């Protein structure tokens, strides 16, 4: 077979590379490639990616890597934010529940409890209250000054919830004792237990308040308890 001219082979190489030349041309090119190193190198170079294509591929890989990194960082950041939000929400809910069920701010009235007031032999006045059925709750004994005198009264939380099962029945009733009153020591005209129409008079300046005498059990209770008297606040 006659050897093809080098320049002709150079023109046929793209067709040979793509497999679209005739069988005769293919055989001639392959015969030439056996002895021509330059043509073999040119044929090999045709399989190498173009610089632009390689650069585009590298740029795409960098972009994908960058997007992947940003997505991972965003996911981690979203997870951290989610945890913080969850903690804040739980803390706010806990504080809200605690406030609604333990912060005493609602005055209680006669519909919430029954009251027993009596006078001890020592001259002190004892007060016992029992909550009506279904009205048991956490509570506090407090006081405030009104136009007619000083009023002690019970307060409950916003939500009436029995939080604890006290053996002492603290959230079902209670007792208080008031004593050591004298006209000279008092800076209020009268002392009541309760508010409004539920107020019960315990002491009034210059007047003997008619109260039932304490029972033997009540006298014994305070003798055993030896609790300090409730101090009347001074202005």
UniProtKB/TrEMBL annotation:
Membrane spanning residue stretches: 80-100
Keywords linked to the UniProt accession: Membrane, Transmembrane, Transmembrane helix
Gene3D superfamilies (UniProt xref): Anti-sigma factor, zinc-finger domain
Keyword 4Fe-4S among UniProt keywords: no
Signal peptide (residue range): none
Domain Putative zinc-finger: 9-40
One of the Pfam families matching this protein, by short name: zf-HC2
DNA-binding recorded as keyword: no
Family: Belongs to the zinc-associated anti-sigma factor (ZAS) superfamily. Anti-sigma-W factor family.
UniProt protein name: Anti-sigma-W factor RsiW
Originating organism: Dysosmobacter welbionis
């Amino acid at each position: 077979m006659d050897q093809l001219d080098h320049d002709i082979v150079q023109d046929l190489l793209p067709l040979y590379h793509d497999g679209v030349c005739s069988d005769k041309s293919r055989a001639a090119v392959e015969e030439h490639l056996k002895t021509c190193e330059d043509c073999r190198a040119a044929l090999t170079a045709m399989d190498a990616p173009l610089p632009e294509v390689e650069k585009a591929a590298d740029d795409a890989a960098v972009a994908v890597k960058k997007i992947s990194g940003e997505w991972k960082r965003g996911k981690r950041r979203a997870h951290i934010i989610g945890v913080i939000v969850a903690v804040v929400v739980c803390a706010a809910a806990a504080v809200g529940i605690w406030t609604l069920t333990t912060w005493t701010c609602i005055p209680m009235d006669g519909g919430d409890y029954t009251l027993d007031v009596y006078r001890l032999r020592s001259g002190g006045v004892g007060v016992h209250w029992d909550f009506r059925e279904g009205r048991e709750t956490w509570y506090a004994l407090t006081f405030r000054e009104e136009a007619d005198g000083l009023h002690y009264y019970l307060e409950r939380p916003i939500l009436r919830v029995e939080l604890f099962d006290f053996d002492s029945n603290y959230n079902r009733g209670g007792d208080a004792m008031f004593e050591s009153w004298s006209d000279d020591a008092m800076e209020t005209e009268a002392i009541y237990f309760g508010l409004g129409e539920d107020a019960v008079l315990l002491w009034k300046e210059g007047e003997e308040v008619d109260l039932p005498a304490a029972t033997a059990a009540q006298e014994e209770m305070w003798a055993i308890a030896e609790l300090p008297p409730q101090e009347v606040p001074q202005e």
